[in-house]
Amino acid sequence: MHRTIEITVPPTTTNSLISELEKLEGVVGLSVHRGSSVLPPGDVVIVHALNRDTDEVLSAVESARQLGPVSVVTAEVASIIDPERKELIDRDVDEAVWEEAETGLRHQGRVTANFLTLMALGGAIGAAGLVLESSAQSIAFVAASIIAPGFEPLAKLPLGLTLRNWAVVRRGLYSVSVGYSVLMIAAAAMFGFLRLTDTTTVQALLENSEVHKIAHPTLIEYAISACAAAAGVTMIMAFRRSVIAGPLLALVLIPAAAAVGAGLAAGEVGLALDALQRLLVDAMLVVVLGAIVIALKQRTVHHRKPMV
Questions:
Q1: How confident is the model at residue 87 (pLDDT cuts 50, 70, 90)?
Q2: How far apart are the first and last CA of the chain?
Q3: Residues 50-76: pLDDT tens digits?
Q4: Residue range 30-47, pLDDT digits in tens
Q5: Helical spans, DSSP H, in 66-133
Q6: 298 and 197 share one domain
Q7: Is the pLDDT assigned to residue 85 strictly greater than 80?
Q8: pLDDT band at 188, cuts 50/70/90?
Q9: Contact call for residues 165 and 298 (beta carbons, < 8 A)
Q10: How many angstroms separate the CA atoms of 290 and 232, rounded?
Q11: In terms of residue numbers, what domain contains 66?
């Protein structure tokens, strides 16, 4: 999607910023409201830009920042209709700037009551799915993987590591540790409840074919996880969040974490350790391959560090 970028700058900086923005081919609209901002005080510069030049716009803002404080708000634009620039608009690219990617990941993976509730519910559904068969099991694993926001906290790690934003790394590690701990506890509670009500048995858990695949993956399963990990980070960096469900389903993060909790509740430490190994491998694939994707984006597309 195209962008609207609203920039608040001190009056002494406005003219120099406008001069830089006018040079950018991807800026298709530019307006100034002098003295209209109350907080922070200053002029408001509104830019309608194509994705391809959004980084250049923010680089110009970063230069203006050296002359005084600035504030930036970005938003998606459904369409830009400009017949004289139709060809340029048609050639626009699908990229999210670093600030938007980090904001989206922070929103989805921040440790809040909603985040923890969804992780717990995803873990409970995943644990129930471990003792189901056929289509019912597939539905449970799909639902658990979509409900539990377990991918976004992991995706913070390669973003922070590659851009050397250690605050993002710390937030990611905190969200991962707390979120997955809650998920495993909920999975253990669900499996304990199912055993208590004679709905399932430890033997049923151990003999389930999908549980065996989680605990003893083949090279094919790891290859699928690797592709899904790279695809998931690429989708976030390409602002294709509406189709992120695909990688979530191909990765086994949530079912594997649920198997850790269920294994511990069943007293099957071996199963829990095998499932933990699968979880850690999938998580490392997200971090390592995600870092490669982000490094390539930085080298070929963005060419700048985030403003904050």
A1: confident
A2: 23
A3: 988 999 999 999 988 888 889 999 998
A4: 999 999 999 989 999 999
A5: 86-90, 98-109, 113-129
A6: yes
A7: yes
A8: very high
A9: no
A10: 8
A11: 2-90
CATH number at residue 252: 1.20.1080
Q: What does the DSSP 8-state code read for residue 267?
A: T
Measure the CA dihedral 51/52/54/59, to 10°: 170
Helices vs. strands in the chain: H and E counts, helices first: 14, 4
Which residue from 49, 149, 38, 176 is spatially nearest to 100, judged by alpha carbons?
49
Decide which of 60, 90, 120 is a domain's last residue: 90
> Of the candidates 13, 1, 73, which has an alpha carbon nearest to the alpha carbon of residue 43?
13
CATH number at residue 17: 3.30.70.120
Query: For the chain, what is the mean pLDDT?
Result: 93
Residue 41: cis peptide before it, omega within 30 degrees of 0: no
Same domain, yes or no, for 183 and 144? yes
Q: Dihedrals φ, ψ of 28, to 5°?
A: -105, -10
CB 93 within 8 A of CB 52: yes
Domain edge (last residue) among 90, 109, 139: 90
| 67 and 215 belong to one structural domain | no
The 10s digit of each residue's pLDDT in 217-237 is 999 999 999 999 999 999 998
Token pair in block for residue 225: 């996880």
For residue 135, being part of any structural domain is answered with yes
Predicted model pTM: 0.89
> Could you give the CA distance from residue 256 to residue 275 in angstroms, rounded to a whole number?
5
Residue 274, φ and ψ in degrees, nearest 5: -65, -40
What pLDDT is attached to residue 242? 73
Q: Output helix, strand, coil percentages for the chain, rounded to the nearest 5.
A: 70, 10, 20
